[in-house]
Amino acid sequence: MADSPAVLHCSGDEDRSTQSLRRPALSRALAVNEDLTVDFTGLEFADTSLMLDLVMIARRLRAAGHAMLLRRAAPQILTLIEIVGLDRLDGVEFDRRPAATA
After folding, report:
1. pLDDT score for 3
2. What ranges make up the beta strands (E) of the chain?
3. Which of 27, 87, 96 is nearest to 51 (CA)?
4. Does the pLDDT value for residue 45 go beyond 80?
5. How large is the angle between the packed helices 48-63 and 75-84, nearest 10 degrees?
6. 68-71/7-9 β-pairing
7. 65-101 confidence digits (pLDDT tens)
8. Which domains does the chain have, with CATH numbers?
């Protein structure tokens, strides 16, 4: 996670087995006192455990008067975001333009 502006970078594969490894970054995301951008550049695979973690952060941000911006998601991640409904939460903005491919 970058310091300013607040950006949470998601990359590689994120699933239930990696949940404990992302806890430090999620804790830092919960502590921000500003809008948070979630950058999915390089995220190849994710399951619902990551999306549910992001739902929790989005709700806490909204309660504190801040927003979450989702950006640069690959097509398979876009689909997962829509299935889970993360994009429909109040306070979540979703840039639906897919990540650039190499």
Report:
1. 52
2. 7-9, 12-14, 36-39, 43-46, 68-71, 92-94
3. 87
4. yes
5. 60
6. unpaired
7. 999 999 999 999 999 999 999 999 999 999 988 766 5
8. 7-94 (3.30.750.24)
